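Give me structure tokens for this 423-residue protein.
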Amino acid sequence: MNTEERIKACHSLITEEAVKEALKAHKGGEARLTSWQIKDFTSKGDNYASVVSSVEVEFNLNGNDERISYIVKINPCHGMQNFEEMTHTIFLKEAEFYIKVLPQLNEVLQEHNLSPLAMPECHYGTLEKKKELIFLEDLRPRGFKMFDRRKGLDVAHASLVLRELAKLHAASLLLQKKDPEYFKDTLLHKGWINMTEDGLGILKMFEGVVDTGILMLKKVGGYESCITWAESTKSKLQEIFEKQLEPCKYQVICHGDAWNNNLLFKYNEEGIPAEVMLIDLQVSRRESFAVDLNYFLYTSLTGAVRKPNLDALLETYRGSFNAVMEAGGAGGGGRLSEAEVLQEFRNFNVLGAIFNMMIIGALLMEPEDVPDFQTTGNDVDDLERAIVELRVKSLDMIDKNPLMRPRFLSVFDELMEVGHIPK
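Here you go.
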């Protein structure tokens, strides 16, 4: 089905019963729904794993007529049966994070007189397979909005994100210290490669991502060592992603998908970013803090911002992390040194390059150029078609989009400079 048909199918999943349940959970049993309507506000290229819309609600509470809006994440209705398991797991993970894990993280922060994590409230979730919905706080009335993903974040924006990621990471360690068994009963062990039973669909997607990166490097020319490195990396993708989830000294709860589309910013009167909100926790998982750092820094910043400011940005992260750990009474054993942060970041640079190859096309593509996701009844063919269509557009952008070439190549230039890729 085309985009218009998909959106219509998604809208049909939002029922009055679900709206009533969300309103009841948020405003209490005395709130009486009087009307509601769906109002889309996102553009093509803003959402991938789910469809995001909003519901505007009118209700009466204690004799007063009031209005409110909710953000609703909806099963994407892509029609690909082989990916229904992954879609369902993603919704289960996000609902679990918001409803079960986030309150515990905030409780442990508040116990140490620290402010809660900058994330929206979750009001309701219905998780019937193929009909999943999650109702979240609408952050727009509070002034939060998305930064133009094509521009790349500057240091001020990036610093806000790194401080909040550090707070999330450190809070998870404080919670683990408080309750060592807590994470055993969560879905936080689910990562890219084990989102489904066999993981083959995701693995195939990442193989296609690397193939596209190789073709882009070949088209540019002069990056033969990077091509060889990427070909070798492709053959080891399963091993790389499995190793990513292994218990380690630096294992924390990571956001897991920390790029521009999953960040909202609020600005002061001078237009300076003052607050950030982390959204879309659908692939949150336990792994090294360096995975979030690599994902974020290699997808959402240009090389011109990232490279000269890397040390300062990592120090911003370290300072925030250590401050939370100290407030939580972790002492010197919970602190990160400057050398530790840099070394762990470098240890996971391969993931930074992979995520850059995965995101770059969608990141810089104009909304009208984002491919329509049409299903033909054959999941394998649909996946191949989507990968090929995005590949063709990405290769075309190497020559036609002035933002693509420097943004893409800067990652490989940096990995050659630090010795990960032979020159």
